[in-house]
């Protein structure tokens, strides 16, 4: 039988033991019962007639529950993947937390997220005095990132500002120890390296929790009032470097050719030497073969040598034939033109013909050989 069927039903959950009337419970009574229960928990006293007091206790309990839930959910927070969280408990450092979903005691703990992976930029610029007492405007930029979250937050008041002041100090120190020409031209890389090293030395004792990953030397120029003069000076220096490079290229190009000519001259000298030696040996061999013939028939050999020599001489000589027996009248001969043609022809003689002339000159020494042969015969007699 259901609890709400008519008749004698004692299964009604809303019916009290001392209540004979069957029906739904009174709302005031229900709230009063709940208030009495919570009032008993928090030290209150239940009262049958205090319905208003019970309702207020219920409201306080609900508000307390809601507050607890809000407090619990308000403690959840998220640390991003590139960050680390600094935990402060009542203002005191209590460690670091890794990326992910975390929970904290609200009002008791404070979380400071610190970006550990992003590379940050910091510029520096200004007019500075160089070693040679010139004024130059320098622009430089550094890139850095955080490596220690605790030192970054607690070592100094503001690590970024401290790094900026250290960069300005390092830059002015290096520029003040450099010459303007080096800063504007060939010494830029040295200035960049020196600034980087000086900056690391400055920030090391402060433990800023930062690391400098790069230093960029963006620009260096003189003041606008003297910019044109410095541009001319820089252009002249660039021309000097260009001329030096061209001279080096010319030297590299002409030196191999000179060495080649030297080598060729050496080879020609060696060939000329060998040719001269061989010619001399050939002449000696010819005279050695001619000597027995001369000893056997001196007059015939001498006559033959004379005729051979004269043949060679007249073969290379211009000849003019004049018939003087036909009469006493001398013919007009253009000797000047003939000699001029002869001289021009001699300039264009081939090398083989000049060598033939040299052989003729050599053969003209044949009488010396005959004299030597006569002395040889006298010695034998």
TrEMBL record:
It comes from the Bacteria. Keywords: Hydrolase, Membrane, Protease, Transmembrane, Transmembrane helix. One of its GO terms (cellular component) is membrane. SUPFAM superfamilies: Band 7/SPFH domain. Residues 1-28, 341-381 are annotated as: Disordered. NCBIfam families: hflK (TIGR01933). This is Protein HflK. The lineage of its organism: Bacteria, Pseudomonadati, Pseudomonadota, Gammaproteobacteria, Alteromonadales. The gene is hflK.
């Amino acid at each position: 039988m259901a609890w709400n069927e008519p008749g004698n039903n004692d299964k009604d959950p809303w019916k009290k033991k001392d209540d004979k009337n069957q029906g739904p419970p009174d709302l005031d009574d229900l709230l009063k019962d709940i208030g009495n229960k919570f009032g008993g928990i928090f030290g209150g006293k239940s009262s049958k007639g205090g319905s208003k007091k019970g309702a207020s206790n219920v409201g306080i309990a609900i508000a307390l529950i809601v507050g607890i839930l809000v407090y619990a959910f308000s403690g959840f927070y998220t640390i991003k993947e590139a960050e680390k969280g600094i935990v402060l408990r009542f203002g005191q450092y209590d460690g670091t937390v890794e990326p992910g979903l975390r929970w904290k005691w609200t009002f008791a703990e404070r979380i400071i997220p610190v970006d550990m992976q992003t590379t940050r930029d910091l510029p520096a610029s200004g007019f500075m005095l160089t070693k040679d007492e010139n004024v130059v405007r320098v622009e430089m930029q550094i890139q850095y990132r955080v490596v220690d979250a605790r030192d970054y937050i607690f070592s100094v008041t503001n690590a970024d500002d401290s790094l900026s002041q250290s960069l300005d100090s390092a830059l002015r120190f290096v520029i003040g120890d450099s010459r303007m020409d080096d800063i504007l031209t060939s010494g830029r890389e040295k200035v960049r390296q020196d600034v980087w090293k000086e900056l690391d030395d400055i920030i090391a004792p402060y433990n800023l929790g930062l690391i400098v990953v790069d230093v960029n030397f963006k620009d260096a120029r003189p003041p606008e009032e003297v910019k044109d003069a410095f541009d001319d000076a820089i252009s002249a220096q660039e021309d000097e470097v260009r001329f030096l490079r061209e001279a080096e290229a010319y030297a590299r190009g002409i030196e191999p050719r000179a060495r080649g000519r030297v080598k060729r001259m050496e080879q020609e000298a060696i060939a000329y030497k060998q040719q001269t030696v061989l010619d001399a040996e050939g002449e000696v061999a010819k005279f050695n073969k001619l000597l027995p013939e001369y000893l056997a028939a001196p007059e015939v050999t001498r006559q033959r040598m004379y005729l051979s020599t004269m043949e060679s001489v007249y073969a290379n000589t211009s000849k003019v034939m004049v018939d003087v027996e036909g009469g006493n009248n001398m013919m007009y001969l253009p000797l000047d033109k003939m000699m001029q043609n002869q001289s021009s022809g001699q300039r264009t003689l081939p090398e083989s013909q000049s060598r033939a002339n040299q052989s003729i000159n050599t053969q003209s020494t044949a009488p010396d050989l005959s004299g030597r042969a006569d002395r040889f015969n006298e010695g034998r007699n």
